[in-house]
Amino acid sequence: MKVSYFSLILFVAIGAQAQVVKVGNDTLTDIACWNAEWFGDVIEGPTNEALQFTNVKTVIERTDMDAWGLCEVSDNTVFANLLAQLPAYDGVNSSFSATQKMAMIWKKSMFELVSYRNLADASSFDFAGRRPLEVALKTKGANPIDTIYFYVLHLKANTGPSPDTASYNRRKRAMDWLKMYIEQNRSQQKIVLLGDYNDDLDQSVISLGGQPLPTPFASFVNDTTRYFFPSMRLSLAGLTSYPTFNPPNMIDHIGNNRLLSDSFYVRESSGVMSQLSSQLNQYLSNTSDHYPVYARYDFKRRTQPTVGLKEARTIPVSIFPNPAKQLVTIEAAYPIIEVQLTNMLGQTVLTSTQGQLNIGQLRAGIYTVTIQTNTGIAIERLVIE
Q1: Choosing a second label site near 200 at 20 to 30 A (CA), which of 87, 158, 211, 332?
Q2: 247: which residues sit within 8 A by CB, 6+ positions away?
């Protein structure tokens, strides 16, 4: 039997929330997305509603992010109670009838609400009844003031027989429609696309004949002159935001258009809060089956070199051998300025200005190779045996 939310007061002391630590950066703007798994629903999701409420509140409060795009916010009253217990935040929820709503919350000290709505002209079928939540927020404290359009997404999940190409095609059509809408209506605005995409950016979670299909978001991902996805590097590093899925994939993402990413995104600042599994007891069963994903922005900075921000794989590179044990050679179509090797924690473990890395002293595992050239970067995956 599920424990009612309204017995919350009896459970506020349950669990050891003190372990959840700050992730936000006081000098930057931290933007996160999180599928909170049927938050407020008394039938679906975690069975102890009071404990889930306490944990969701604790994660938002103690990680100290500046804005959140939330998915599966299922009860308006519970959402209102969450905001009431987070006095530093304001927020809005979706207006459509489907239970799994998308919501947006933000720090009152950082943003001011301009407008919000669910896109009425979106294809409800392709978006699985969850039409994108468009929230326009005006920044505070930055000079000049910026207005940012957030699109909180929860795309069609895989529910049919494997391989579920029907759901794959609905995700593709939904994002193709959203791209058209943005370019027709918001081409001069700063854009953030965040939420549960239910698929990955580097390749699809759907396979045919043992081979993954191309990402259904290719219209965005391949348009590198107009869009950039901070969470792409997490996909390429083999990380996961949905750990119960096998094989692991990133299905929760943050994307930007270049008006935002090239001037304000802090390079390589994206991350996934997988540490919550060790900070909250039985997090995956009593809080959410997704990890939050985040990226950082510096709205005090007005310009930033675009070198290094071009999307992965736009520059032809070759890494061999791969997998490797000792020496790795990197060849690129353009002169190499620097090569960085980072582990799955995002830590830089090797750098070189040459096209060769000696990896003999490193642990076996999956690493990310960032190759910076005089025209941009490429990001590739390296397996060390």
Answers
A1: 332
A2: none
